[in-house]
Amino acid sequence: MARNEIEDEYEELDEEIVEPAVDARRPKRQRIEVLHQDDDIVVLSKPPGLWMDVSPGEDTSVAEQLIQAGLLEDGPDPVYAYSLDPPVSGIAILSRSESAASALASQVTDGSLKQMIRTIVRGPVMKDSGTINFKLSGIVAGMTGRMKVDAIRGSDAATTWTVRDHFVGFAVLECHTKPAVPHQIRVHLEAAGIPLAVDPIYSGSTKLMLSSFKAGYRRSHRRPEKPLIDRVSLHVASVEFRHPRTGEPCRFECAPPKDFRATLHQLERFGRKPR
Question: Which CATH number applies to 3-15+29-270: 3.30.2350.10, 2.40.50.140, 3.30.1490.100, 3.30.1330.90?
Answer without folding.
Answer: 3.30.2350.10
